[in-house]
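[09:14] KT: can someone run the structure on this one? pasting the chain below
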Amino acid sequence: MPKKVVLAYSGGLDTSIIIPWLKETYACEVIAMIGDVGQQEDLGAARRKALATGASAAYIEDLREEFVAGYIWPTLRAGAVYEHKYLLGTSFARPVLAKRQAELALELGADALAHGCTGKGNDQVRFELAYKAIAPGLQIIAPWREWTICSREDAIAYALAHNIPIQQSTANIYSRDRNIWHLSHEGGRLEDPANGPEESMWQWVVSPERAPDTPAEVEIGFEGGTPISVNGSRLGPVQLLGELNAIAATHGVGRIDLVENRLVGIKSRGAYETPGGTLLVTAHRELEALCLDRETLHFQQHLALRYAELVYYGLWFTPLREALDAFFSSTQQRVTGTVGLKLYKGNVSVGTRSSPYSLYRTELASFAMTRYNPKDAEGFINLFALAVTVPQGDLTAPRVVKR
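[09:31] RB: done, structure tokens below
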């Protein structure tokens, strides 16, 4: 039986009821770890709530700088997007939270770690793989795999019975996760893919219909594939992302509604708000098109898909992910320059691209036949066409099988 448990605590519905449940079930000391990953919430209030509901201590850990520089930027440099649309906002936030939680548990001499992830989701895997990488000797407690609570309605009833203040109700039942990169929504009406999202569900990115009638222009600067500036002003990681979030959200950019394949084999439906991230992914992709040669760019797309899977599956602390980082660090050396974007009522268009390492040559790309002998194309085409011009035999003729 565990004696001291460190819980990843947010103050939301699930973790709010876990503190009293752990004390009732295991008669153990519970310490709450609140990770600040830019969720724009009153973390002081969350700390007070944790203490009021039975935690012996509650720690607020500022992880924003580490999160952006050490998790978001590497994923951006890799061009990793899961299933064409998901920009991995929750996926890469879990490892940074779980890492600090496990480190804190070791520092405090705890013998167990706990989280509020459900038994159907991806997050249980992401947290627990990180635990096993950082603190493999600690017991893991996953209440959603142990208790008799079966739904969010049950969780709300438990909270009310134990006088635990919560924001959720049967009318406002969405499960949300927010950090500096995104805000996710699951549950409620979204559980039926036939239902469109309620406008009242969105909390960050304004409706495109209500966005300003005047477009906004923003220029993003990169060095080695890493964002460094907005409109010519050099900014730190947290400030830069915050600036882009404000611009994009105001102009209705960054809403996504998708059905995705969870790691555990279940299809799920979620809605995501990723304003600044949408701008960064768009700009980074355009700069790569300017600076990378064809073979590297095409091969990188294969590895970007694998990188996205690793992040989504919770395999952050693995040799393969680190090895892929080394590959992308090499390919990104020349991804330096600026990209100008225009934002208008939910849409993003690319206006300008500039790089000192651009492989684009106007004299080659223009219609004028300069620095290029068009007669060379004839031989190239003849060789390239060999596979389709060499007779392959009559496919309709019967095959003769020799015995």
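[09:33] KT: thanks! The mean pLDDT is 94.
[09:34] RB: yep, looked fine to me
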